[in-house]
Amino acid sequence: MRLLGALAIVASFTIGAAAQDSYDVASQLGSVLASEQICNLVYDQAAITQFIEEHVAADDMEFASSLQGRISLEEYQLDKMKTSAMTAHCAQIARVAKSYNFIQ
Questions:
Q1: Other CB atoms closer than 10 Å to residue 75's CB: what's the count?
Q2: Which of 9-13, 54-58, 64-68 has the lowest mean pLDDT?
Q3: pLDDT of the residue at 22
Q4: What's the pTM value of the predicted model, to 2 decimals?
Q5: In 39-82, which residue ranges form alpha helices assigned H by DSSP?
Q6: Nearest 5 degrees, angle CA 73-CA 28-CA 51?
Q7: What residues does each domain of the chain span?
């Protein structure tokens, strides 16, 4: 009986970790996607699809809404960013986008 209880606890942490990973991916990708236009980048749509195929479970029903929420929040924050902060932000976003082949 203790074994079943321990397995249930491990399973809940595993499921929770998977959900957190999904949220983290949505959050991070949302930041990159929201920055595309303001940083004057043009992303390869097939590369974005490939990224999602590799990092998001096919049955993850929360990813899309988490992604959209992060994009909306990021766009709001980007509109308020000062010039130097925007320069630094876009420099790193371009590096990240290049590392995932979103840009050449």
A1: 15
A2: 9-13
A3: 87
A4: 0.79
A5: 45-55, 63-79
A6: 125
A7: 2-99
